[in-house]
């Protein structure tokens, strides 16, 4: 049996919709409907990039993986020089893990969009040969996010300042960032961490590339793995755009779990997290009104709480796995 056949037998795959980026650029009506349905019904979909002209995503992926492999091989004390709080970057074990009583098992280097746009050197990238690759990749991801937002605004019949793009102006501060995530192989973990606990994402859209299984989404049939696909990004809807759409758009609960591969191999994920402007007000899943920044900060604190404390509220999963949601 081939390696591909063994992988097919190992995983129960999620059947996610596929949306074509080029057709979105052309404002193809059927493709806009497909995008809207995917965001309303699933909250997760594949974005097919194969027909795009001049996309920097696939071109930069290999270089960024090289960067990640070198960066995360460094001693912990070296990486901790870049740590400036859990909201930006840090080592594994700062949040709860998948298993009750466990901590998480991933470390992150997070590069703020504002730093990329201003061409400031992020501490973790200073004096490396990869700065331009990161800038081009982040810019390409940002363009894809705004393309998706524009087509969703069209589908929602939004105009002028009501359009979703209007809450994401580049000239206004946001916590948008490029996240480089490393899940060390189980046999090298320094703590008893397990994966990344279930959650919904904080912001608007998350764009993800990973060549290794491990990401799971919550479906009506239980947890299902998301299959890595060449020339495709995995896109998921976040909390705040669901709030901005009066819950028409669905954020999906997901997590990262260990697999047979990650027992002996590292797993790398390249993620672009688009967030609205920090001062935008939203009515959140518990019926309260907060700014986007307040929701961001509160959710990061909830990530660090015990599993029992997390279950008592609606923040970690944005109310998506609870009938108590107030939206």
Automatic annotation (TrEMBL):
<dbReference type="InterPro" id="IPR050231">
    <property type="entry name" value="Iron_ascorbate_oxido_reductase"/>
</dbReference>
<feature type="domain" description="Fe2OG dioxygenase">
    <location>
        <begin position="174"/>
        <end position="276"/>
    </location>
</feature>
<keyword id="KW-0560">Oxidoreductase</keyword>
<protein>
    <recommendedName>
        <fullName>Fe2OG dioxygenase domain-containing protein</fullName>
    </recommendedName>
</protein>
<dbReference type="GO" id="GO:0046872">
    <property type="term" value="F:metal ion binding"/>
</dbReference>
<dbReference type="InterPro" id="IPR026992">
    <property type="entry name" value="DIOX_N"/>
</dbReference>
<dbReference type="Pfam" id="PF03171">
    <property type="entry name" value="2OG-FeII_Oxy"/>
</dbReference>
<dbReference type="InterPro" id="IPR027443">
    <property type="entry name" value="IPNS-like_sf"/>
</dbReference>
<dbReference type="InterPro" id="IPR005123">
    <property type="entry name" value="Oxoglu/Fe-dep_dioxygenase_dom"/>
</dbReference>
<dbReference type="Pfam" id="PF14226">
    <property type="entry name" value="DIOX_N"/>
</dbReference>
<keyword id="KW-0479">Metal-binding</keyword>
<dbReference type="GO" id="GO:0044283">
    <property type="term" value="P:small molecule biosynthetic process"/>
</dbReference>
<dbReference type="InterPro" id="IPR044861">
    <property type="entry name" value="IPNS-like_FE2OG_OXY"/>
</dbReference>
<keyword id="KW-0408">Iron</keyword>
<comment type="similarity">
    <text>Belongs to the iron/ascorbate-dependent oxidoreductase family.</text>
</comment>
<dbReference type="GO" id="GO:0016491">
    <property type="term" value="F:oxidoreductase activity"/>
</dbReference>
């Amino acid at each position: 049996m081939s390696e591909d056949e063994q992988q097919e037998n190992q995983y129960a795959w999620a059947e996610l919709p596929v949306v074509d980026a080029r057709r979105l650029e052309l404002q193809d009506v059927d493709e806009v409907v497909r995008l809207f349905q995917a965001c309303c019904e699933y909250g997760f979909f594949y974005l097919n990039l194969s027909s795009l002209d001049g996309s920097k995503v696939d071109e930069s992926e290999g270089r960024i993986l090289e960067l990640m492999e070198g960066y995360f091989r460094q001693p912990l004390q070296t990486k901790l020089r870049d740590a400036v709080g859990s909201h930006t970057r840090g080592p594994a074990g700062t949040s709860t893990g998948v298993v009750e009583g466990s901590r998480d098992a991933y470390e992150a280097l997070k590069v703020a969009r504002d730093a990329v746009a201003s061409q400031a050197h992020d501490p973790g990238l200073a004096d490396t040969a990869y700065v331009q690759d990161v800038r081009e990749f982040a810019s390409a991801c940002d363009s894809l996010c705004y393309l998706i937002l524009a087509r969703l605004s069209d589908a929602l019949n939004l105009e002028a300042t009501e359009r979703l793009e209007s809450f994401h102006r580049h000239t206004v501060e946001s916590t948008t960032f490029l996240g480089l995530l490393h899940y060390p192989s189980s046999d090298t973990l320094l703590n008893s961490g397990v994966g990344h606990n279930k959650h919904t994402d904080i912001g608007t859209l998350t764009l993800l590339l990973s060549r290794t299984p491990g990401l799971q989404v919550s479906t009506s049939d239980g947890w299902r793995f998301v299959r890595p696909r060449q020339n495709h990004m995995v896109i998921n809807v976040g909390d705040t755009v669901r709030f901005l759409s009066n819950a028409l758009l669905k954020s999906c609960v997901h997590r990262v779990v260990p697999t047979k591969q990650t027992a002996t191999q590292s797993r790398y994920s390249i993620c672009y997290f688009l967030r609205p402007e920090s001062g935008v007000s939203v009515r959140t899943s518990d019926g309260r009104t907060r700014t986007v920044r307040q929701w961001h900060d509160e959710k990061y604190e909830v990530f660090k709480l015990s599993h029992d404390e997390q279950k008592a509220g609606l923040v970690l999963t944005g109310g998506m796995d609870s009938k108590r949601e107030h939206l």
